[in-house]
């Protein structure tokens, strides 16, 4: 549940039982939920609540889901919109995506599938909320303490993880051994600076960086990661 703490989801549907079902399920998953039954109030609530994800029904009286989608996207903040419809028609899906929707689901749908699509949108548009940060070929998942390189999870020790994370987050910057020791090993480290070389060598092997093109050594200055 802690992995989604602080993530805001707005539910928009004119069918009360659907709103209640989704609100209970997503609240139990740890999301912060607000609901509204129509398109016009959805736009007002979106401006106030600024949700990360909107689950938006298409078929509503008055301002329908298509118009609400267009208006919410024009508010100017980053938001993922997943549209719901009872119609399985290509034209509706194309129209929704053209107006700015990020995904589309056809009723009836399973809660597990909706949850998976929400997680996919969060990974795509708000990776840092899930403890994930993407830089070039690296994906850092700080909740799982994992780093993926070129879609492969690296087998790293805890210290290797912290060292590589520090270097990736500071890519393009020359990092001296003393600065690395301060940030990764902390100020009370009493060993030699050469320990950094040992860990860099191990990480290079795991990255298959034999020619040091990824982790560069700048003699007398330190190390720098260059990302494409």
Q: Secondary-structure blueprint of this entry?
A:
Elements: E1 8-12, H1 16-28, E2 32-36, H2 39-49, E3 53-57, H3 65-73, E4 80-85, H4 90-98, E5 103-106, H5 111-125, E6 132-135, E7 138-141, E8 146-149, E9 152-153, H6 158-169, H7 177-185, H8 194-207, E10 215-218, E11 222-225
Helix pairs in contact: 2-3, 6-7, 6-8
Describe it for me?
It is a single chain. By secondary structure, the chain is α/β, with parallel strands linked by helices. It has two domains: 129 residues, Response regulator (Rossmann fold, 3-Layer(aba) Sandwich); 94 residues, Orthogonal Bundle (Arc Repressor Mutant, subunit A). A hairpin with a 2-residue loop joins strand 6 and strand 7. The two termini are 35 Å apart. The mean pLDDT is 89.
Keywords:
228 residues, alpha/beta, Rossmann fold, Arc Repressor Mutant, subunit A, 2 domains, 8 helices, elongated, WalR-like, phosphorelay response regulator activity, transcription cis-regulatory region binding, DNA-binding
Uncertain spans: none
Tell me roughly what share of residues is in helical segments. 40-55%
CATH architecture of the largest domain: 3-Layer(aba) Sandwich
Number of distinct helices: 8
Q: Using the alpha-carbon principal axes, give the shape.
A: elongated
Text of the CATH class of the largest domain: Alpha Beta
Percentage of residues in DSSP E strands: 15-25%
What's the count of strands?
A: 11
Give me the secondary-structure category. Answer: alpha/beta
Q: What is the N-to-C succession of helices and strands?
A: EHEHEHEHEHEEEEHHHEE
Quote the distance from N terminus to C terminus.
35 Å
GO molecular function: phosphorelay response regulator activity; transcription cis-regulatory region binding
InterPro entries: CheY-like_superfamily, OmpR/PhoB-type_DNA-bd, Sig_transdc_resp-reg_receiver, WalR-like, WH-like_DNA-bd_sf
Protein name: DNA-binding response regulator
Pfam family, one: Trans_reg_C
């Amino acid at each position: 549940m802690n992995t989604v703490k602080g993530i805001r989801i707005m539910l928009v549907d004119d069918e009360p039982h659907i709103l209640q079902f989704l609100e209970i399920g997503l609240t139990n998953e740890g999301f912060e939920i607000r609901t509204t039954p129509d398109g016009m109030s959805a736009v007002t609530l979106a401006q106030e609540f600024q949700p990360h994800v909107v689950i938006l029904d298409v078929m509503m009286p008055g301002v329908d889901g298509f118009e609400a989608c267009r208006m919410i996207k024009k508010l100017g903040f980053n938001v993922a919109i997943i549209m719901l419809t009872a119609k399985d028609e290509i034209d509706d899906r194309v129209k929704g995506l053209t107006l700015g929707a990020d995904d589309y689901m056809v009723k009836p749908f399973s809660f597990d599938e909706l949850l998976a699509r929400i997680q996919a949108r969060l990974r795509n548009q708000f990776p840092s909320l899930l403890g994930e940060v993407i830089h070039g070929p690296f994906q850092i998942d700080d909740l799982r303490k994992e780093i993926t390189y070129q879609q492969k999870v690296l087998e790293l020790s805890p210290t290797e993880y912290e060292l590589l994370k520090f270097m990736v987050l500071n890519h393009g910057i020359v990092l001296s051994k003393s600065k690395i020791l301060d940030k990764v090993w902390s100020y009370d480290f009493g060993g030699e600076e050469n320990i950094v070389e040992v860990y860099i060598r191990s990480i290079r092997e795991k990255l298959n960086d034999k020619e040091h093109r990824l982790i560069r050594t700048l003699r007398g200055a330190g190390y720098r990661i260059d990302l494409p």
